[in-house]
Amino acid sequence: MGAVRIARRRVSPPCRLLLSPRAVADLEEIAAYIARDNPVRAPTFIDALEAQCVALARTPLGYPPREDLASRLRMGVHGRYLILFRLLSHDDAVRVERVLYGA
Asked: Which residue segments constitute the domains of the chain, with CATH numbers given?
């Protein structure tokens, strides 16, 4: 009996995740806004937003392009928040540009 060859899908490693200074400020502003009404929920919500950023760095091409907003921009969603990011091909990295309330 001959050897069985198993086809393996090439899986690319996750991209490095970078946050622009504006995205960091957005997260701080979101945390402060939520903390006004619910100080216990604010840090856990920011953790969830950051986890979504990590998830989009794993499969950045799985998120829709938003060329209507800016060149090479893509968008992820977490609840009512939009995570706008770019894939930086020269660095093999994803840079989150903004995190905005979208409702």
From this structure: 16-101 (3.30.2310.20)
